[in-house]
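> forwarded from #structure-qc
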C-alpha cells in the first residue's frame, strides 16, 4: 500500500458518535478545509465494503482511487501537499457506514469516496452534507442527489439512465414485449425496479412478472417459478453482482430460457463467475464502460491498473478513478480547501472520463448516458 493511503479497514464497527462530537475534533464544518492550516497532507477518506458479499466492489473502487491519488502525489500533489486517504471498511452495512462517516469527519477528511452501494451512501449523506464534506459515490439510486444535496456527486449515471437505455434497446431495437422483472428491496434494487418499470410503462409495456427478493437471499425458487409460468422473452434483474449470478444460474436450472438483462452488475467478472460462463453468455447489459480497449484513454488506464495491481481493470475501478481525478482537479482549483468551496469546484469540473463526459447537474449527476453490451465469452462486447 502506498504511504499516502492509510488502511483502517477490517476493524470493528466504530462506535456511534454525535455529529457535534465528530465535528469538535476538526473545528468548523468542512474539517481541515475550514482551519487556518495550509500545510501538511490533505486528508480524504474512502468508505467502502472491504469485506462481506459486495466486497469486490469496494476492492475495485479502492484500487481506482488509489491509482489516481498515487499519480497525483507523484506529480507533486496539490501545491506540494500530498493527498492522504484513510481506508474504512463499511462491510456493506449502512449502520457501519454512518458511524464511519462520523469518524471520517472527526478525523479531518475533507472529501469521502464511497460508498459503492446506494444504501450506504444514502445513510452517510446527512452526516457528510451536514459537515460540508463532499461525497463521491458509485451508488446509482436516483434518491442520492435528493438526500445529499449540494455535497453529493455520482461518478457514473443513475439507475434512470441505465434503465431507460436498456428499455429502449430491448423494446425498440430487439422488439421484446414479454419482459419479466426480479429485483431486491434494498436501495439499489428499489432504484432499479422503479426506473426500469417507469421506462417500460413509457413504452406501453407491462411486465409479465414483477418479483421482489431480499438483498441477502440465496434461494430464488419460488420467485423464479412464478416467472417461469409467464414464459418471458427477457428477465430483467435489478440486483447486485452475486445475487444476479445466483438468479441467472437458478433460472436456467428451472428451464427459464429468457435472455437476462440489467445494469452494471451484470457486466462484472463476479456476475460471470457466479452464474457460470455458459449461463452468463448472452446477458444484455446497460453500462457506461464496455471494456478496456475502447480508446486510448481506457487503454492507458488499463495498462496502469494492470501494472499497479496485476489484474484487469473494469467498470468500478474506472468510475472510482474518474471520481478521484475530478476531486483532484477541484482541489487544485481551491488550493486544497474543502467545504462549500470544494463542493462548488467539483460541480464546476468538466471532465472527459473513462465512463463518459462529466458535466454535473443540480443533483450531482455527471454522466448522462450508457451504452449497450452483451456478454460473450465472459466479457462485454458492444452491441451492433
Amino acid at each position: 500500500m502506498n504511504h499516502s493511503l492509510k488502511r483502517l479497514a477490517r476493524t470493528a464497527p466504530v462506535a456511534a458518535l454525535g455529529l457535534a462530537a465528530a465535528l469538535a475534533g476538526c473545528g468548523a464544518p468542512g474539517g481541515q478545509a475550514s482551519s487556518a492550516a495550509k500545510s501538511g497532507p490533505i486528508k480524504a477518506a474512502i468508505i467502502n465494503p472491504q469485506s462481506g458479499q459486495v466486497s469486490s466492489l469496494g476492492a475495485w473502487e479502492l484500487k481506482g482511487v488509489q491509482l489516481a491519488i498515487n499519480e497525483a502525489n507523484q506529480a507533486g500533489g496539490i501545491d506540494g501537499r500530498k493527498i492522504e486517504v484513510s481506508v474504512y471498511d463499511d462491510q456493506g452495512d449502512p449502520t457501519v457506514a454512518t458511524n464511519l462517516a462520523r469518524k471520517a469527519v472527526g478525523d479531518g477528511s475533507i472529501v469521502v469516496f464511497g460508498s459503492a452501494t446506494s444504501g450506504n451512501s444514502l445513510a452517510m449523506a446527512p452526516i457528510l452534507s451536514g459537515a460540508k464534506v463532499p461525497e463521491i459515490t458509485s451508488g446509482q439510486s436516483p434518491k442520492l442527489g435528493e438526500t445529499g444535496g449540494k455535497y453529493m456527486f455520482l461518478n457514473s449515471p443513475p439507475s434512470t439512465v441505465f434503465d431507460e437505455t436498456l428499455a429502449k434497446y430491448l423494446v425498440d431495437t430487439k422488439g421484446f414485449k414479454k419482459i419479466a422483472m426480479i429485483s431486491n428491496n434494498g436501495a439499489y434494487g428499489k432504484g432499479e425496479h422503479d426506473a426500469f418499470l417507469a421506462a417500460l410503462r413509457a413504452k406501453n409495456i407491462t411486465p409479465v412478472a414483477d418479483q421482489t427478493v431480499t438483498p441477502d437471499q440465496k434461494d430464488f425458487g419460488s420467485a423464479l417459478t412464478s416467472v417461469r409460468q409467464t414464459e418471458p422473452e427477457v428477465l430483467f434483474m435489478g440486483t447486485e453482482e452475486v445475487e444476479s449470478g445466483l438468479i441467472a444460474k437458478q433460472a436456467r436450472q428451472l428451464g427459464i430460457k429468457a435472455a437476462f438483462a440489467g445494469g452494471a452488475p451484470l457486466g462484472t467478472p463476479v456476475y460471470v463467475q457466479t452464474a457460470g460462463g455458459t449461463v452468463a453468455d448472452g446477458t444484455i447489459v446497460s453500462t457506461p464502460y464496455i471494456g478496456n480497449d475502447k480508446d486510448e484513454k481506457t487503454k492507458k488506464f488499463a495498462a496502469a491498473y494492470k501494472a499497479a495491481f496485476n489484474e484487469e481493470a473494469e467498470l468500478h475501478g474506472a468510475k472510482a478513478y474518474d471520481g478521484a481525478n475530478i476531486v483532484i482537479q477541484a482541489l487544485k482549483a481551491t488550493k486544497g480547501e474543502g467545504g462549500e468551496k470544494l463542493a462548488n469546484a467539483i460541480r464546476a469540473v468538466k471532465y472527459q472520463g473513462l465512463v463518459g463526459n462529466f458535466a454535473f447537474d443540480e443533483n450531482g449527476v455527471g454522466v448522462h448516458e450508457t451504452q449497450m453490451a452483451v456478454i460473450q465469452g465472459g466479457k462485454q462486447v458492444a452491441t451492433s
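QC bot note: The chain has 14 helices and 15 strands. The chain has two domains: 5-157+296-359, 159-287.
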